[in-house]
Every structure is written in C-alpha cells, then in structure tokens.
Amino acid sequence: MEYILAHDLGTSGNKATLFSTEGELIASVTYPYPTSYPYDTWVEQNPEDWWQAVIDTTRTLISGIDSRKIIGVSFSGQMMGCICVDKAGTPLRPAIIWADMRADKQIDKIEKKKKKSAFYRLTGHRLSPSYGGPKFMWIKENEPEVYHNTYKMLNAKDYIILKLTNQFVTENTDASSTCFMDLDRLNWSQDLLYIMGIDYEKLPRLCQSTDIAGYITNEAAKILGLPSGIPVICGGGDGICAAIGTGCIKEGVAHCSLGTSSWISITSKQAIYDEAQRTFNWAHIIPGYILPTGTMQCGGGAYAWYVNEFCEHEKILAKKQNLSLYDYLETEIAQSPLGSNGLLFLPYLMGERSPRWNLNARAGFIGIQIRHKKKDFLRAVQEGVAMNLKVVLDVFRDYSQRVEQIMVVGGGAKSKMWQKILSDVFNVAISLPDTIDEAASMGAAITAGVGLGVFEDFNSVDRFMKINHTVYPQKEAVERYSYLSEIFNHTYDALIPIYNQIKQFQK
Which of 76, 301, 348, 497 has the fewest Cβ atoms surrounding its Cβ within 10 A? Predict the structure, then answer.
C-alpha cells in the first residue's frame, strides 16, 4: 500500500491526513496553534507555529506505517495572507492572515489609480484589505525595513513548502488571493504591481497546483522523520482544495463550508462578475475552470464564539448527561421553532467580506424579548449565518447558475439542525460527505495524485468521497425562511448608518 500525506493549514490549526492511493483515509490528526490580535482589525500568526504543527502531526501520522511508502506530500492552506521571508527563508515578522483588515488606507490609494470595476474585472476580486497584496503594500509603507529585506512574499502553505524543499513557489489559487494576478491570463500583472508599488522580484515562482514544487531535503527529512527526496506537490488554497474534496470538479456543482469563516463556491467555466461585486472568483485547481465564491468572515466561528462565551452552564449539564456539549446543544436548538421565536442574529463579528463588504458591520441580536431562552439564541446564530450565505447563493442563481445540490463540510456541518436550516433557507438538497472535516486535505491529496500521475484526472474523487446522507428542503419551511430572509436583509440595510456611527465613536 502506498500513501499520500496531506496537510490543511487552517486558521485554528493544522489538520494532517494520511490517505492510501486507493482513497482510504488511514489517519487524521489536528495540531492547534494560537492567533494574536495586537490591535483593532489586526490578526496575526507565527509561521513557526505552522511549521511545528506540520512536524508534530507528520510524526504522529507516520508512527504506525512504513514511511518509505509515502509517495508524495501536498498542502491545502489558508489564503489571502502575507508572509515576508528573507533569502534564507526566515520570517521577518508575524504572518498577516486573511482576517486582518489593517490595509484600508492602501485600498483608498489603489482606488485613486484603478477604477473598482476595472480592478474587479482584472483580478476577479473587489478591492478589500482582506487580500494579500494590499497587506504587502501596508508593510512597504509602514515597515519599510521589513519590505526592503523581504526576498519573497508567501502564503501559508508556500512557507511550509519552502521549509520542506528550499523552493520559493506559489500556485494559481493562492496567487489569485493576492490581487496581483490577472485572472484571465493566470500570471502576475505588471499593471497591478505598478499601481501598488510592489517589486516583481519579491513574488515567488508561479506554478500549477499539480506541479511538483520540489523534493524533501535531507534537513527537513530528519526533522519530520521522513525519507528525503519525497516529491512535494504545490496543492492549493483551502477553499479550492475543499471544492476538489467535495466533488466540485464540473459546472454547476457547489459546496458550502462551515469552518471558522464560511463560504459557498460553485465550479464554472466562466468567472461571475456581479454588478454589485458581492462575490468574487478564485482560480480553480483544475485548468479551464473558475471557482466563483462568496466568503463571510465569521460563519462557523460565530457559533463557536457564542458557545464558548455563553454556554458554560450547558457544559456542566452535558457532562452530567454523558453527552458532548455540541450534542447537548443540538437538543436545545431543536426545541426552538423556525425563526427562533422572532429573534434575528446578524453574524458580523469581524466586519464582513462577501456579500456585504462592510468593515464597519457589527454583530447583533435583534428582537430580544424577555421570553427568549438560550435555545432561541443558539438557533438564531445558525439561522443568521445561513441567511447571510443565502445572499451569496442568490447571486449565483441570478447569473443563471443552476444549483440542485450543495455539499456541506466543516465543523459546523456536523450539526443536524444546521443541516436542516441550510436546506430550508437555501431551498436545495444538502449532502454530507463521510469526511466532513477532511475535505480540504483530501482535495490536496487528490491534487497530489493527479500531479504524480497516480490518478488519471480529478474524477478520482469518487474513490475518496462517499455521501453520508442528504437533507431535503421542506416547502412550508422554505416559504417561511424566504420571508424571514427579507427581514434579515432589511435589518442589515437599516443598521448601516448605526454601524458607521459606532465606528466614529470608537475612533
């Protein structure tokens, strides 16, 4: 038996998986790492924490196998980051990750040189401080010594590939998250680099996701406990790897992730350029395809926040009943009716990316009455995330994208109540694969297999992924949620002036 080792470098930790070339998940292990919030809108991580996570998880996974049977290593990774390294590959500062929004002034400068509509058409993305390019621009303007000493700007998985192979590379999916890439031509745009004042030579070599970036060096092999010379395949950004891992390999197939951030993506041969720029477009791992996407800042993260902050008593009750906390909360949510007894939750705990694109947006519960119970608040959070994602799905439908089934993955997908809510809010069948947590790393493994020639093409996902079960929408619930979604959107619109006033107050 031969194996592929795949890592998914997420926001909260690294999920490492070992797959057989027959598609069997042999083992999976997660190593958490911290996130720092030094200032308002700043979000950073230490790249060395990622590396330590890769070391520990690799050693754990290979402890029970013959590591000489590993034929390749590949990666899925958080996107839209900015990691500055010198010629030796040493990080010059903490990594600025996707959730960081400090580069708002840089966005204003770009807008003066490039119309928003032209930028959107060129990159597939609207102007936002969430992307890697504006973050690098911020470093140049605020930390000039760091910029001067930067040999290459990388993303998360690119940094780990560097540690393994001594190669400074990225690939099309992560490159499309920098806003330095011309989406049509799939190359670095001299026009964009000039506008942002970024030197071309500071960008890494651009590869295909299926390309071999390099081979594990003797030094890295000793640290990891692996044989040297194993090929390292580039892989892709986490959202695009998750698309591969859920079977989004042909037109019209969509997937939804309920991780820390949450998104809906659909595979298409053409980019979707929404007039209101509510959604954006990634380069796909599969050549010839695009992955139109809408990603909200805090989806599954909103539910985790509420549970962590307000459910200490429920932890005690769950323990007494010998239940996991989340299983206990499932029974609570089921006792709250559709619409959470008139309680709405706006899930904007970190401002918002798609579909609102409003840094000033704030989370809130609307409609609180003395009769409301904890179960209503829990359900309202799940409903609020679902209705926010529905705005994204409606954009795709507006552009004639037919969606009959959505694969749902991520930690939040384990909630049966959330599955039902999503199906009724979206008015579409929701399917759950048997590897909810491993979709991104599985996509990386499949990408590696294609790159190594082990798999003929990406249809090999069929040997990896099995449908666990499917939830179908209920007509009455669909109709009620359609009305509630209108209220949800009207509530957001009405609060925009308040959000702006709060922002002014906080200055």
Answer: 497
Q: Which two tokens stand for residue 381?
A: 């959070």
Distance CA 118, CA 189 (A): 13
3-class state of residue 360 by DSSP:
coil
Structure tokens given for 19: 């797959």
In DSSP terms, 233 is beta-bridged to 74, 212
| Class level of CATH domain 3-245+439-468 | alpha beta
Give the per-residue pLDDT at 394.
96
pLDDT tens, residue by residue, 88-142 = 999 999 999 998 999 999 999 999 999 999 999 999 999 999 999 999 999 999 9
- The answer to whether residues 249 and 458 touch, using CB atoms and an 8 Å cutoff, is yes
Cβ pair 287, 208 in contact under 8 A: yes
Matching residue, tokens 């909630």 = 415
The residue with tokens 């959202």 is: 239
Any idea where the domains of the chain sit in the sequence? 3-245+439-468
Gap between the Cα atoms of 149 and 84, Å rounded: 9
Confidence of residue 260 (pLDDT cuts 50, 70, 90): confident
Give bridge partners of residue 231 from the DSSP assignment: 215
The DSSP code for 204 is: P
State the Cα angle at 390 between 389 and 392, rounded to 5°: 70
Question: DSSP assignment of 244-280, as one string?
Answer: HHTT--STT-EEEEESSSEEEEE-BSS----TT--SE
Q: Of the candidates 203, 198, 123, 193, which has an alpha carbon nearest to the alpha carbon of residue 158?
A: 203
- For β-strands 13-20 and 25-32, DSSP reports them as antiparallel
